[in-house]
Amino acid sequence: MSDSEVLIKVENVSKKFCRRLKRSLWYGVQDLTAELLGRSNSHKDLRKDEFWAVREVSFELKRGECLGLTGCNGAGKSTILKMLHGLIKPDKGKITCRGRIGALIGLGTGFNPILTGRENVYINASILGMTKREIDKKFQDIVDFAEIGEFIDTPVQSYSSGMKVRLGFAIAAQIEPDILLIDEVLAVGDVGFRAKCFNAISRISKNAAIILVSHTMPQVARVCSNIVVLNHGKATYTGKDVPKGIEHYYSHFESQKGVVTGSGRATIHKIELESKGKKDIQQINYLDDLCVHLYLTVAPEIKQPVVFIGFLSKELQIIAQCSSLYNKVKLKNTGGQMHITVKFPAVNFNPGVYLLSSSVLDENQWEILTQHYAIKELKVLGEFVSFAPVQLMGEWDVKV
């Protein structure tokens, strides 16, 4: 196969399911009978209690490309992976896969729980097309990658979910597949193992086509060259512009309502965002200035409150913070309303959607007087996407 050959081609694929088990079994008998008689029911309208899990999805992937398949829960991502792996058939459309397929689409998928890890390695690798000689040669690499050496002769039913994922990924990675399918299960692994997995994905992707199902957009931005965003079974975006696809992904979620907590000895009346002289804005361009206006009242007995402003990702991970204490700004409180303005000359956040939080603490930072968590949304626009949420502006000196 040439490097430019298309290894995965999905053409107008649809898949329907039934919400009721008994009715689903009856429909299955009807469809099987119709298929045996040379008739197909797939063109008909939905029957009672049926719904489209995937509807008219199309994409193709060449060797050397990695596709990020993302969307809300229930969007149809795992269903597409199962169809690609041949576990279920599409009701409409056509799927073409060329070459050896490695898949990790569920915790312990394909493992026999009463057999040992060693036995499962040989069985699963054989199913994936490896000979016993090939498995013997790769076996120690699989065990080393999975980091379960002392448990390799223990029944898999005693493994933790993380151990099953490590072993499953190790097998899939070592068979050197032409196509590698990976579901969200990598989220179960620890930080060190995830780093090892993504290094392996980068290595494998040079000679394979990879489909990665993930809700973690920094991961998608890091390894994917293509992206498909699903919503209720339909593809809302398909293409190579990964930043644009990530923007489509975030657009399917409602804005966070935010949470207000604290002892009540301070009140934030209003938070207002300003950029380039315009107030009450919700988006800025990369490297635009940003002013955060805080209107607050603090109990008179708190003479020098401490104010924090934080920015969180859509996954609610804090990516940047500014505090009056760290900036050595002493806030003198008289009990009246305070208007605090914090200016950020050039916001160097990776283009995306962020959530602003603000909190007020006492002088010793023992008591949270008030906290507005993920209370306001800010969108940063730009023509690029980076692996990191914040870009550092360095002073470069190059000598030739």
In short, what is this structure?
The protein is an alpha/beta fold.
Structural description of this entry:
The chain is α/β, with parallel strands linked by helices. It has two domains: 6-10 and 54-251, P-loop containing nucleotide triphosphate hydrolases (Rossmann fold, 3-Layer(aba) Sandwich); 259-381, Distorted Sandwich (Coagulation Factor XIII, Chain A, domain 1), CATH 2.70.50. Helices cover 24% and strands 34% of the residues. The protein is built from eight helices and 19 strands. The chain has helices spanning 21-36, 77-84, 117-127, 132-146, 161-174, 191-204, 217-223, 242-251; strands at 6-18, 50-62, 66-71, 92-97, 101-104, 179-182, 209-213, 226-231, 234-239, 259-261, 266-275, 278-279, 283-285, 290-298, 306-313, 318-323, 338-344, 352-361, 368-381. A six-stranded mixed β-sheet has the order 5-6-7-3-8-9, with helices on both faces. Strands 10, 13, 15, 16, 18 and 19 form a six-stranded mixed β-sheet that branches. Strands 12-11-14-17 form a four-stranded antiparallel β-sheet, with no helix packed on it. β15 (306-313) and β16 (318-323) form a beta hairpin. α3 packs across α4 (132-146) and α3 (117-127) packs across α5. The longest helix is centred in the N-terminal third of the chain and has 16 residues, at 21-36. The relative contact order is 0.12.
